[in-house]
Specification:
By secondary structure, the protein is mostly beta strands. The chain has helices at residues 81-92, 185-198; strands at residues 9-12, 17-20, 26-27, 53-58, 63-71, 99-106, 120-130, 142-153, 158-169, 200-201. The protein is globular.
Length: 208
Amino acid sequence: MNDQPPPTLQQLFGGAIVAHIPPQFTDVRFLTHFFFYLYRTQNDDIREIPDNQEVFVDTHTDQSIVVEILELVNEASNEEAASYHFSSVAFDNDAEDTTIVQQTGILTPAEVPKLPSNTLMYFATGQQMVSKFNERDSSARNLVNIFLAVFRLPQHQTDLVITYNLPILIGETSSSRSYAQEGNVHVGYEEFKRILASVQIVDWSLFG
């Protein structure tokens, strides 16, 4: 018997995509000031979310979910795409030296049933040590577990990337320690699977 609640579907990109977003996550546009992990910028400035991103955060745990429409990465093969985007996230977070890719693989239509069965779908999981704001002390770095999926849409020259960022160990001097709870990898993984199982492209004209 499945005792999980039904997915909470969220309209993304004006309703062109729908996906399950856990109810405790808030659209970052509704937050007046919150810096989250793996925000694709090479500095610590707060800026507007670009049109190619949808970002949701749980302010009680510092977890974040990022959905991005990116240009197809031609220099990476299909099998390398998830690792490529995982490394790109590490670069954006100055975490290149503290990154571990634990697993990569192919997603199946059974795992992502609402996308066309011929969609090229890949995943990567791993961990990164990430600091927030300008916290450069090594003891301020937080260990973040990352679940990443990439859906390759070569007919639209697009990589659709979903990233679930789950801090599992908060540094002793991190600003997050005053309010955030460390996450559970198993619980996060189950939520990530529910996101993948629900993601659906409603309006393909989103990709031009």
